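fyi for ur records
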Amino acid sequence: MEENKVEEIGKEPASDVGGRTEEPPAAVDEPTAETPADADAAARTDEQGAPEGEPKKSALQKVWGWLKATVPGVALCAVLAVPAWFLGKLVPVIGSAVFAIVFGMVVAFFPRPKWLESGIRFTSKKVLQASIVFLGFGMNFINVVEVGGSSLLIIVSTIATSLVMAFLMCKLLRVPANTAMLVGVGSSICGGSAIAATAPVIRAKDNEVATSISVIFLFNVIAAFTFPAIGQALGMTDTGFGMWAGTAINDTSSVVAAGQSWESITGSDAALEYATIVKLTRTLAIIPITLALAVWQLVKAKRAAKSAPGGEMPGTLNFSFVKVFPWFVIFFLVAAVINTWLFPLTGAGEDISSFLSDAGKFMITLAMAAIGLNTNVVKLVRSGLKPILLGLVCWIAIACVSIGVQTALGMW
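which gave:
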């Protein structure tokens, strides 16, 4: 969805951890929101993409510049992902995604040069989204539609639960309203992507965005570690775990990581496929939520204008439907259509489908390494315990409601 500067939104004054400057963890999953500084920089960019006053660059120069900025960070993620991939095969009860996160978190405590950051951000966002598209080549489109439709009631229930709990905890703990809204939306829809899309609509401050992203990220990591073990202890089926993970884990990255860990334990990729479909269906909820918030903000602005001197509107909303829409979901559906009808027609068979699906799973491991590299637990703790407690309550409530609705419907 995407989204492509969520880490920039959440920038606060950097803190020094482990000898290097730290920034809030990058969010995975999909839309973008720009700060005023970003907008000003974009406004000073000419049609060729060169800053005003500088010589225009050729297409080859732009590509070379992008490669120089991106490849080193991607290479670092690959160095961590390759051993994590093989260790995941040797120790399936843990899985390659979890190994990759741990390796990244360990390396994150050591100083690293700034020129690695662009590639790490690219891997945690674009590579992750590409991995989901590749997973679509291993899925049947008819099953995608059926699974997505059957999960709607649970998705609506968990979203409503998260928003209500965020509102109640906001009042109880006296957490800033914008922070509570961002944590509630991030917990219930798609993590950092939902936060990035919602922040400009509700006019959230940078520190509020940074705090909410950090809270969401904390529970993403915890979920990737704990959900497979909890699911096994509860005796969940593949579909039951897939539905639970897809509706109860905060964002796409951790959903696919948990699904991949479950596959390593059980030897079946049914839960990974099921969880991915459910999560992508849930991700689409960002559209009505952000549109509703945009309308509400306009109503508030009009009310404020009536009481303001001269009756002037206090500013316009920075809201873009194009930025909010999760475009990578469309490509995932296209991949599923190709796998369902085009591959059989061309005689491609299951070999190419299996290869592309496996490539997507390795890309997940690659993205998990990048997410681990962006972990900043110290900064999260410094932000205070109230937002963390709010996120914990939302997370637990969603997990319980998901299981409860499945049980009531006889799905688990």
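Strands lie at 15-17, 20-22. thats all i got for now
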